[in-house]
Every structure is written in C-alpha cells, then in structure tokens.
Amino acid sequence: MDTEKDVLIEGKVDWKGRTATKNKHGGMRAAFAILATFAFENMANFALAVNLVTYFNSVMHYDIADAANHLTNFMGTGYILSILMAVFADAYIGRFRTVLIAAFVEFLGLALLTLQAHYPKFQPPLCNIFLPTSNCEKLSGGNAVMLFSAIYLLAVGAAGVKAALPSHGADQFEEKDPKEATTMSTFFNWLLLAVVLGGSVSLTCFVWVQDNKGFDYGFGLSMIAMFVGGIILICGLPWYRIYVVQGSSAITEIIQVYVAAIRNSNLQLPEDPSELYEVPMDKEAGLHEEFLPHRDVYRWLDKAAIRSDNTGSSPWKLCRVTQVENAKILLAMVPVFLCSIIMTLCLAQLQTFSVQQGVTMDIKLTKSFNMPPASLPIIPVAFLVVLIPIYDKIIVPLLRKFTGIPTGITYLQRVGVGLILSSVSMAIAGIMEVKRKDVAKDHNMLDAIPVLQPLPISVFWLSFQYFVFGIADMFTYVGLLEFFYSQAPKSIKSISSCFLWSSMAIGYFVSSIMVKIVNHATKAGTKSGGWLAGNNINRNHLELFYWLLAILSLINFIVYLFVAMRYKYRPQSLDSEDEHYREVHQLRTLKPSM
C-alpha cells in the first residue's frame, strides 16, 4: 500500500473537498490547464498594454504624455491591487476561487471597453490630433467615466489572475518532493512560455485587427479570449490540488512580530537561541514544515520571542521562533524587491514611447502589408518562444552539471542577468532614437504627420531594444517569481508572488511621476516645454530620457549585486537543493548578520 497512488497531499484537497492524492491530482497534467488559462488571459491583455496609448491618443484625443500616463496608471493599479487580491486568496476565499472571480470581472471590463469602442456616441467627435491646426475635443463627462470604469474593472480582474494563478499552478507540485520540485521549476519557465505564446497572438492578430478593422473588433477578440481562458480553467477542476485556506491571515502574524519586537525592545536577548519561545514539536505532529530553525540575522526581531513575566500570552507581545523567522525572511526579501522596480520603469517606456516612435517610421513588411508599431514586441516574444524550451531542456541541465543546482543557476543570479540587460536595452533605445531623429532632420521631416508621412527608416530598427529587453524579461521576471514563491512562508504563497506584481506596480507609477518630473526639470531648456512634452516626438529629446534610464539601471544593478551577495536563503528552500548547494548556504549562515 506504499504506492504513489495512496500518497495523500496534506493541506490540499480536490474540488469535492477530499484530500488530494498524487496519482489523481496535480502535476503537469493539472498545470497545463492553468498554463493555457494564463496564455489566453495574456492573449486578451497584451494588445491592450501596447496599443491603449494609441487608442487614448487617436480616438479619445489625450496628448501623448497624458495617454502614456493613463496607461501606466492603469497597469500600476492592476499590479498594486494584486496584493489585496492575494490576501483574499490566501486567507479567505482560496486561490482557485480568486482566479475564477477575477476572470469574470476581467471579462466584464473587456465587454464594456468593446461597447464603448463600437458606438461613436460614447466617444469624442472624430478629429486628427496629429494636425498642428486641429483643436480636438478630449473625452469627458459620462463617457470618460465609462472608459475608466472599463479599464479599472480590467485592472481588478487582471490583479486577481496575476495574484493567484501562478501560486495555484505551483500548488500542483510539492516542494518537499525532489522530483516535483524540479518539475515546479519547469512550470515557472513554461509559465513565461504561456505568456509569450498568448502574447504573440495578441501582438500580431489582435493588434492588426485593432489598427485595420477597428478597436471595437480588437477589444472584442480580447473579450472572447478571456472567456475561453475561463472555460479552460473550469475544465481542469477535477485534476487540481486546491490549497486549503487556513482562515487566518499570515500577514497579521508577520505584523505581530514587528509590534512585539518594538514592545519588547527593552528586554535583553538570551545568549542561547533555544531559550526563545517556540511551541513543542509534538503539538503539531505531521506539520514539520511549520517549524523553522533560528538564524542569527536581524537579531532585533528575536526580541518578539523573548519570554518574560510581562509578555504573558498575547500574540502582540510574544511570538514563536518560526513566526519570527518568517518575518525575517520577508524583511530580507525587501531589498531584492526594491531593486526590481526599475526593470518595470524601463518596460513602461517600451510600451508607450517606443510605440510612438514606431508610429512615425516606415512600417511596411511588404508592398501590401504593414506591421502595426504596437506589434514590435512580437520580435522578442517570437525569440522567447524558441529560447524558453532551449533554456529549460538544454541550458539548465548543462548548467546543473557544473553548479549542482536544480535550476541551473540560483534565482538571484538569474534576476541579475536580466537587470544588467535592461540597462543595455535602454542604452540601445537611446542610440536608435538618435538615428531615427537624424533621418527626420536629413529629410526635412521633423514636422511630418505620423502614419500619413512616415520617415524613410524601417520600424525594425527598434527591434534591437525590444530583443534585448525580451531576454532580460525571461531572466528577471521568472527568476523573481521562483525566488519569491520559494522563499515565502507556505501560508502566503499568493502574497509572495505579489512582490513581483507590486514592484511592477511601483515601476509603472514611478514612470508616470518621472515623466512629469523630467518635463518640469527640462522645461526651460527646450522649445517643446520638456524632453517628453507635446505630440511631436521628432522635436522631443526621448534619447536623453532613455540614456538617463540606462544610467539609473546600471546603478541599480551595482546595488543589486551587493544585496544578492548578502542574501541568505530560507532553510526550507534548501530542502530541494542538492548537497553541494546546501553546504554553500550553510557556510554563508556562519557569516555575521546583515
């Protein structure tokens, strides 16, 4: 009776509430439905991320800077809301239910967006905003309310999917099982593959439909893709391992540690860590993973676990060692989180200003077919479709032979590669912008009308910056997802993935703020009223903005190197590593605390 089919998965159930078993539930079979759902969700959203600026600018008549800020605010809100959705997923309604509800809300947002794009009465009067003499009326009143209601319904829905779906997928594997732990790493690589496959359809077919058949048809395709994704999610229900909600907020327990440490700040730390408070092991038999060994880092937090006559039994004055260690782990992850913000700051420019660059350039692929500028990200996406399987099936096993690490290189090494490449991407973007503007000057086309009077330079010159950033994407974002999921306490796995989404949210918001700051700071020294002001990108100084981001990204990478070298992995995460890797981290724990 020791066969795999009889092995129960503790803490996870099937859709009928029965304890999940290894042979019937979870694994890649269940994960494929989750990957397909994520692919269709990204299929619905990718086109919006790259083409909403054009929609805001050409149809709703916001100028380029405002249109870019509306997009980044929308994207940032979606990512920041993922924290709230993750709390609900982990503590109240569960990850699967969160994804299901969020998918429905996202579908409603797309339906409302499609409705507004289809009927002219919900839009401002037709007008060519690129004509210097035009005085176009911006969207206002009830129609503006309709637009922003639609996109922020989208933000709420996308937040729920991003918060819970990756963690729900990772729940299909057991970190304690070496074989399943390796498969889980493959799942995260294939999660990015699902993103790029869905994105490739969105960036080609959906964007082409938006630009050539109308935004209403394009948004309608996104709505259909979201509906199909929801159906696939439901179809996988019989095979899922569903995480059992504990009914208590792990975030509250983390906060209790900080409160207790402050309240006990006048107490003396014991020399022997074993004197710190912990519940007896036998009280939670079978839940060994709930116990973490004490580590000699962030010692001031240990004061939360000091027993004294005054602490009593209040959880706000006395916390167990494992609770304190979880708080230490989250605190140690914060510097990594902060270093990842600038990556999204760079991404925001490729989704906004780089698309506007493409609008001014020659977009012909053949004599009869034009490439929509918003489809430019298909270049790195197409490359990633090929690279991800090669990386997962060839490069990782090869690296594993040299490093002994199941994932080939550590999570933080993978993130570091992406961060330096993002700096390179911004430097290339600045060089390409100089070339584009030189063509405009040489042909006396600085005031040329975009689309109607394209510059005699192919839009494919922009592919270099997209190509390099696409590779950076593969390393950084997947590395961060794996890192945050593996390091976080088991009860807040969804919230852990929100470290990534939150860093992206802050990156988008910082992008909006930075555009305004740069324009204000350079207003006096430019005829256009700032490096990025106005609708004529040919007379702006976008190349200087790109180079500023390249320098900031390089500085950020140097800081990240310092952070990554000092980071100490949580003990539990090392259970899935091989002996060599475990020894390395054991040696690191002997160093002085941070």
Features:
594 residues, mainly alpha, 16 helices, 62% helix, globular, disordered C terminus
Notes on the protein architecture:
The protein is an all-alpha fold and 594 residues long. Helices cover 62% and strands 3% of the residues. The chain has 16 helices and 5 strands. It has a 3-stranded antiparallel beta sheet with strand order 2-1-3, with no helix packed on it. A two-stranded parallel sheet has the order 4-5. α3 (95-118) runs antiparallel to α4 (141-170) and α13 (463-487) packs antiparallel against α14 (493-521). The longest helix has 35 residues, at 178-212.
Q: What percent of residues are in strands?
A: under 5%
The 3D shape can be described as: globular
Number of helices: 16
Q: Give the helix/strand class.
A: mainly alpha
How helical, in percent, are the residues?
Answer: 55-70%
The helix/strand series, from N terminus to C terminus, equals: EEHHHHHHEHHHHEHHEHHHH
Distance between the termini: 48 Å
SSE layout and pairings?
Blueprint: E1 8-13, E2 19-21, H1 27-59, H2 64-93, H3 95-118, H4 141-170, H5 178-212, H6 215-235, E3 242-243, H7 250-263, H8 321-339, H9 341-351, H10 353-359, E4 361-362, H11 378-403, H12 411-442, E5 455-458, H13 463-487, H14 493-521, H15 542-566, H16 579-588
Parallel strand pairs: 4-5
Antiparallel strand pairs: 1-2, 1-3
Helix pairs in contact: 1-2, 1-4, 1-5, 1-6, 2-3, 2-4, 2-14, 3-4, 3-6, 4-14, 5-6, 5-11, 5-13, 7-8, 9-14, 9-15, 11-13, 12-13, 12-15, 13-14
In short:
This protein is mostly helical.
